[in-house]
DNA sequence: TGTACAAAATTAGAAAAACTAATGTTATGC
DNA sequence: GCATAACATTAGTTTTTCTAATTTTGTACA
C-alpha cells in the first residue's frame, strides 16, 4: 500500500484512508489485513480488475480524443466566392501545406449567401467574400481591395486606350451583375455618381460568365482586374484602367463572432494577411 | 444541462462548472454553446460514450461483487476432527440448511494440527477440536464435554458390570492414542492420578481404529461414549461407566482471533451453542 | 516469549474540491 | 428590440481529500 501511495504521489495515510473508504462504500474488504505483506481478497482482485478495465478504457478514449483534436485543431475549412479564383486558392493551399504540414486546408466555393450560412452554422471556419458585411453573428476582417477595371473585347474602341474616364462608358452596352449582389449595387452607385448611363444588356451572378459575354462582344463590364489575367494573356479580353482610383472591390474574411479560432485557422489567417 | 443537474441531484451551477472542468482537463469543448438547446461536439459524444462504457462496466462489477458477497457472507467453512462423527455433522448440516436456506455449510474432516492451520490461514472459518488450545492467533469457544467411558469387547469381564472403578483397569491390555495427541496426555494423567498402570499394546491416531482393535479383543480403551453408539447397538462394543465424573473430553470451537465472523458463521455458531 | 522493525491504521487539522445561491450573460422566438 | 429560458460566473460554504504525527499491528529474530 505504501508503494501504491508513492506511485500515485500521495501519502501512505491518504492511500490507507482511500482504500478504507472504498471498502466502506462497497461494504466488502479488499485486503486481508491479517497478513503481511497485505493480500488482496477475492473482492479486492475483482475490484482491481474493474479499475484496470476502466483505466484501459480511459487510455483508449484519450487516444481517440487526441486524434479527434488533431483533426479539429489542424483543419481549416474555408468557404470562398468563386471569383477569388481557383489558381489563387491552390497557390495558397500549396503554401499552407508547405508551412504547416500537419494541418489540412479544405476550400469550398459557393455563392455569398451560402458562405455566410456556412460560417454561421460552423460548417466553415472562414468565409472569403466581396463587400463583406458584419452582423450580430458575423465578424469581418478586411483582406484586400481589388482594383476594378473596364473589361472590353479586344475589338472595342476603348481597347487601345491606356486609360478610360467614367464618361467613356456612357451609352455602352453593359454586362452587369445580378441585382441581389453587393457588387451590382456598388457599381450602380459608382456609375450614377459619375452621371454615367449604360445600356444594361445582360446580368449574371458570376464573373466567369460576364467575362465570356464580354469576350463574345455582347458588351463591356467593370470587373476586378486580377480576375481577368488569363483572358488578357490569351488576348480574349482587354482591361482598361479607370481614372477613378476609388473603384475597388473589397474582399474580406468573415468568421463567427464568438468562435475561438483554432491553431490551423490562425496559421491560415497569418498566411492571408501576411501577404496581401 | 439543467435537466442533467436535476437528474444527478445537484444544482445547475454545479453541473455547468463540472462540465467546464472536464473540458479544461481534456482541453476540448464538449458542448457547442453557440446553439440552444446545447449540442454535443464530436468530442462530447466521444466522452459521453466513454462515460456510459464506464458506468456499464461498473454495473457489471457490482453484479459480480454482490454475487461474491453473497457467497462469502453466506458460507460457513468448518474444519472438524474425525471423531465429531459424520452422523452428527450431517444432522447439523440438515438443520442449518433448513433454518438458513440461503447459506451454505462446508465441512471438512482433518487431523487437529491441520485444523489449527486451516483456521489460522483462513481456509476455514471455524474449527472443531478436542482439548482446544488458544494461542496468539486462535481463540476458543468451549462447546461441549463428552463423557468418557471404558470401551471393552462384549466378551470382556467388565462388560457385564454397570460401572467400573479406575482400579478395575489395572494391568489391562490397553489401546491408546498416539503420543502427540492431547487426549493421550489427558488419559495418561488420569490413569497416573489414580495409580493405575495399564499394559499399552497399541496406539492409534484416531478413535475409529481404536474401536476396531477393541472389538477384535486386542484390549480395552477409554473413549467418548457418544462415539461408540453404533458399535454398542451392533453388539460389537460395550461401554462401561467410570465412577470418576471428571473424565470428559472437552470439544471446542476455534476461530481466528481478529476475524470478523460473517452472518452465516454467526448463524451456525448460534445453532451449535444453542443446542449442546 | 519478548524485542525490533517495517508497514498499516488512526487522528487532528490543513488544503483542495465540489457545491449552492445569487447574479450576469446569451441564444432564441416573437 | 424585448422577453424568456438556459447557461455561465461569482463569492462563499460545505464536503472531501490529503498530510504529518502518532499509534497499532504483523513478522522475524534473538
Question: Can you describe this structure?
Answer:
Two copies of one chain form a homodimer. Chain A has 276 residues and is α/β, with parallel strands linked by helices. Helix content of chain A is 42%, strand content 24%. Chain A has nine helices and twelve strands. The first copy, chain A, has helices spanning 2-8, 12-26, 42-73, 86-99, 112-120, 182-193, 207-215, 229-233, 263-274, and strands spanning 31-32, 39-40, 75-80, 104-109, 126-130, 138-152, 163-164, 173-177, 199-204, 221-224, 238-242, 248-256. In chain A, the strands form three sheets. In chain A, strands 3, 4, 5, 6, 7, 10, 11 and 12 form an eight-stranded mixed β-sheet that branches. In chain A, strand 8 (173-177), helix 6 and strand 9 (199-204) form a beta-alpha-beta unit. In chain A, helix 1 (2-8) crosses helix 2. The first copy, chain A, binds a DNA duplex (30 and 30 nucleotides) through helix 2.
Produce a short descriptive summary.
The structure is a homodimer of 276-residue chains. Chain A is an alpha/beta fold and 276 residues long. Chain A has helices at 2-8, 12-26, 42-73, 86-99, 112-120, 182-193, 207-215, 229-233, 263-274; strands at 31-32, 39-40, 75-80, 104-109, 126-130, 138-152, 163-164, 173-177, 199-204, 221-224, 238-242, 248-256.
Write the layout of secondary structure elements.
Two copies of one chain form a homodimer.
Chain A: H1 2-8, H2 12-26, E1 31-32, E2 39-40, H3 42-73, E3 75-80, H4 86-99, E4 104-109, H5 112-120, E5 126-130, E6 138-152, E7 163-164, E8 173-177, H6 182-193, E9 199-204, H7 207-215, E10 221-224, H8 229-233, E11 238-242, E12 248-256, H9 263-274
Parallel strand pairs in A: 3-4, 3-5, 7-11, 8-9
Antiparallel strand pairs in A: 1-2, 5-12, 6-10, 6-11, 6-12
Helix pairs in contact in A: 1-2
The first copy, chain A, binds a DNA duplex (30 and 30 nucleotides) through residues 1-2, 10-18, 20-21, 31, 33-38, 258.
Amino acid at each position: 500500500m505504501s508503494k501504491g501511495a508513492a506511485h500515485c504521489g500521495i501519502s501512505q495515510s491518504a492511500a490507507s484512508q482511500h482504500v478504507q473508504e472504498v471498502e466502506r462504500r462497497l461494504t466488502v474488504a479488499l485486503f486481508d489485513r491479517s497478513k503481511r505483506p497485505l493480500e488482496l481478497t477475492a473482492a479486492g482482485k475483482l475490484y482491481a480488475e474493474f479499475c484496470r478495465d476502466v483505466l484501459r478504457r480511459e487510455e483508449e478514449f484519450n487516444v481517440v480524443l487526441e486524434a479527434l483534436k488533431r483533426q479539429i485543431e489542424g483543419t481549416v475549412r474555408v468557404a470562398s466566392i468563386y471569383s477569388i479564383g481557383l489558381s489563387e486558392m491552390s497557390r495558397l493551399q500549396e503554401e499552407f501545406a508547405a508551412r504547416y504540414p500537419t494541418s489540412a486546408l479544405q476550400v469550398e466555393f459557393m455563392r455569398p449567401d451560402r458562405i455566410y450560412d456556412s460560417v454561421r452554422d460552423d460548417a466553415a471556419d472562414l468565409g472569403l467574400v466581396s463587400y463583406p458585411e458584419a452582423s450580430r453573428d458575423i465578424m469581418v476582417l478586411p483582406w484586400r481591395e481589388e482594383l476594378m477595371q473596364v473589361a472590353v473585347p479586344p475589338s472595342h474602341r476603348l481597347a487601345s486606350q491606356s486609360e478610360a474616364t467614367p464618361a467613356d462608358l456612357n451609352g455602352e452596352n453593359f454586362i452587369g451583375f445580378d441585382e441581389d449582389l453587393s457588387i451590382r449595387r456598388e457599381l450602380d452607385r459608382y456609375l450614377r455618381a459619375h452621371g454615367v448611363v449604360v445600356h444594361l444588356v445582360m446580368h449574371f451572378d458570376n464573373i466567369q460568365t460576364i467575362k465570356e459575354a464580354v469576350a463574345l462582344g455582347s458588351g463591356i463590364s467593370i470587373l476586378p482586374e486580377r480576375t481577368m489575367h488569363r483572358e488578357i494573356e490569351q488576348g480574349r479580353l482587354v482591361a482598361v484602367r479607370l481614372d477613378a482610383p476609388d473603384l475597388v472591390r473589397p474582399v474580406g474574411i468573415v468568421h463567427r463572432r464568438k468562435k475561438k479560432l483554432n491553431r490551423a485557422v490562425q496559421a491560415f489567417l497569418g498566411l492571408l494577411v501576411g501577404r496581401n
